[in-house]
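Components:
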Amino acid sequence: MSYADELVAALGKEKVRLDPAERFVYGADWSPRTPSEFFPPDVVILPRSTRDIQRVVQIAYQHEVPVTAGGGLTGMLGGAVPIYGGIYIDTTVMNQVVEIDQRNQTIRVQAGATLQEVNDAVLPYDLWLPHQPESKWVSTVGSAIACDNDSTFGVRYGKILNCLLSAEIVTGTGEILELGHRKAHFTSSGYKLKDLLAGSEGTLGIITEATLKLEPIPRTRRVDMLVFPRLGAAVDYLNRLLKDGLCIEAAHINCKRRLKFYTSTYRSKHGHDPTIPAWAEALLAISFAGDPEVVEFQRGHALKVAKEFEAQLVEERDIVDSWWASKYTLEFEPFKQKWPDSQRLKKFGAADPGVPVGRLEEYYHKFVESAERHQLEIIGMNAYLEHPNSIGFSLSCAVFVDYRSEDEVKRFREFHDELSKLAVAFEGTMSTYMSDTYQKAPYLEVEHGASLKYMKKVKELFDPKGILNPGKKFGRRDRI
Amino acid sequence: MNSLDEFKDELETCFGTSCGFCERGCPVYQAVKIKTLCMKGRNRTMLGLLQGKFEITPAVVEAAFECTMCGNCDRWCALKNTEHTRAFREYLLKHGYEPMKEHASLAASIKNYGNPWFQPRSARNRWTKGLNIPKAAPGQQEVLFFAGCTSAVNKALVPGLVASAKLLQKAGIRFATMNQDEPCCGSTLLRIGQTEAYEELAKKNVERFESLGIKRIVTACPGCYVTLKKSIEDRGSEIQVVHIAQEVAHLVKEGKIPVTKSTERVTYHDPCHLGRLGGVFEEPRTIVSAAADLVEMPNNRYESRCCGAGAGLQSAFPKLSKELAAKRVAEAKATGATTIVTSCPFCETQLQTVPGIRVVDLMELLLNATEDREENGKINPGA
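Structure:
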């Protein structure tokens, strides 16, 4: 009996999809690739429960068939694309809320729930999950953990790992494990295996349920934008605010080029791009949230200190609101939306390195130089503060890619690889929100050196036959 | 160039973007969770077909036809997704795919009877009995009331038409109808992919309206509203098309239709064709608010959820269609409203299939509020 027949016998036809059209749509994610670059799986599974997934993995283990689990397929580097075919598990079908514990401010959900669905569920309790990437409508809890993607509110709440208390997974042998510390916020006991899941890309186990820590919804929020003469000045300014004891909710440093990408709402209203002072090289979007009196005090202090850093407040609210709509509220003008609007000819592509805080400007110039050398149109750089109450940031070094051109896609990948390796040379890291995928797999040793062999041993423990999302992090030939 | 090639750039843009923001509000996808049945997956399916990656399979056919074309995906996007779906259906029919048997029946009925309901043309005329409405004749009238087939041939929906006509008469609007000569607007043909048949019909329709000297058409049905508007605009005609809610709302505002407001808690369901696809949101609310206590559902206006009746879903996928209706009714009940008011015959009949809440046509609600006033303010919430 073929593994597909076994899957049908075990789960029933409704959960096992074999039609080529239904398989095809899972063959690509959000990453820059030519329209013919689809890697459809051989079988698609629409599971309803952890047991369903366990059965699938058990059959795959027997037949040594690749198993890739995915969520909204909005990954920016092919993380959930089943490049070796096999079985694709569409976890979005599993989106049920298992438990909302209001008193302890936690939610237990199936891993296929989108981040927005989680927030819809807990809104009546005046709670929210502050891990908020722009893809929150589609990005699922499982994929947010497995990709370790970014969050608008990282400087106050961190990323998904800061919210993750416990997770259920199905390992590469089909064993069901619970990793974490139940509803306790942290632990000093044992090895923190749960933390391995962040950025694991489904290579250690398929996440099926998660317990997440929730936060009270702040009563008010004030968002402002300040312009600075240099990127480094914005970094110094944020450092000062943290030193002064302010609780910043969100902080994003944009280079001046990048603003254009976020302000389609402004353009459709005014018929032209927003104007900022000619001397401004950096724009800082910053928010404070909480009790109105406290928010006003913090904002007032932040604006007062800004003068010491040659910063100027952006007075035109439409610029700020347009950026915020694009970034967070997603209240687009009907029938318009920045993604397809801005990407009719070329699409967004990025490298996602992290560099030490003092080397942001130096790295920015390298980014521009690399993009120009690879003949890629520059969108700009964003530095998102993503570590609680610290200046640490992730970088989005973004360019437009003519994805209909094989040559340009190739140049983009070279650009991405160059910036990734350069970040390590800058004493930083290759990835801060997109993970490694197959793209960084060939040169992962650049970042991890000898420790890579320990990572392979960890992989072997969870997935001895190397069937889980093969080709990601490690080349498939490296499977244990 | 085939009907899908026209959209190739758009399909590739969706592939390039791949945001998937269309999934959240898609009523079908949220019910079935099959990726080919949301717009991102449907666009990819069309792209794969154009690339020759696979043949027309059962899943391809479902991707094309298991959709209400409610336009919710368009609301979150800059692409013309509903047009892609229409072209997808046309493509399949042109490539030798036989229409779904339910849809083939609809097309045959339109050809033979001028309506998709297998009702004789004379049925189109019954609702006007006793109303003393003149029949449209060349140069005799400027305003045409276009009843639409669904309400005209369905006894349960006739009161909505009668109310519309009475309200126009009360406000002193001079109008005519085409009685049994009223043609099919072509909406059904357009939605099920019978584009050639629609184009032929649309051409004839506009010629007839022009020859009658019509200046303004007032439609009772939102499907007729958007379809006639398209037919007329595509042909450069200057005839104005409005929905009855638009026509009447300003009469209410101007006091030409005096209304007594009741205390009944009602909610308004935006028909997809009138709201998202037609851009008419506030006029119906003006009317409802004048007649009753309006409470909104969480998903309203642009974010309104489809009742499940549209674009052939009701006929070809009745179980799913009913599931969508049940979801919408549940949303309405959760507001505490005792009545759903709507302004589309499809939505009205579809929502009435779910027990537990009263469903009333917008014009019936208004006429009742008007007649209450005439009866010295006596409140009669039950229409």
